[in-house]
Amino acid sequence: MPDVRAGDPIARLLAAAAPPDLADGDVLVVAHKIVSKAEGRVRRLRDVLPGERARRLAADNGKDPRAVQVVLDESAEVLRAERGVIVSRTHHGLVCANAGVDASNTAGDDELVLLPADPDGSARALRAGLERECGVRPAVLVSDSFGRAWRLGQTDVAIGLAGLAPLHDWRGRRDARGRELRATVSAVADAAAAAADLARAKDSAEPAVLVRGLERFVIREDGPGARALLRPRHEDLFL
User: Fold this and answer.
1) Model pTM?
2) Structural domains of the chain ordered from first start
3) Pairwise CA distance, residues 125 & 128, whole Å
């Protein structure tokens, strides 16, 4: 796909790049960067005036205060800031490093890409656009790379979703030995995002991955979206 700029018709570009046998049961995993760029979710450092808190956090963590100000603007709450990392809860309710603000794969050193303002809405719009362009209605998943508590490394997760069941609840069913399952809920959407990440190298300039074999989880309606994957605050043992 070509480089994406603000206002570009993402659904049309994805439709042009998709194989001719794109089907209703497919899942299209789209890196959030192209969605954010098309939606104009980009900040330029030269336009940012850092406040006192941003300057203080920047000094403590070895960061550009202008970049820190962008992170603060995108954060509903800063949860921790140390060792050069700011962990915050975004206005969407996502808990991640630097509120998802990222400088990789941008147009220039002065540019930062933000998360989409409404990732689930973006996924729904892309799904509707693909249906108009292709006549089929695959599920659409908008992904981003997140770190994880307790574990090293990053993996892609679903931050926006339309047409895919986000979770598969096994509670109340029986395991192979007949014991009742009481806690098992599979994160279907995150697993699909992680699988797509393995197929798409970080330097590939291929922002979309077609995932097949998940037809049993693809639904006709758009569904609850990736918001259903957010753990309620009262259940979070670390906040």
Assistant:
1) 0.93
2) 1-40+115-229 (3.30.1330.100), 42-114 (3.90.1660.10)
3) 5
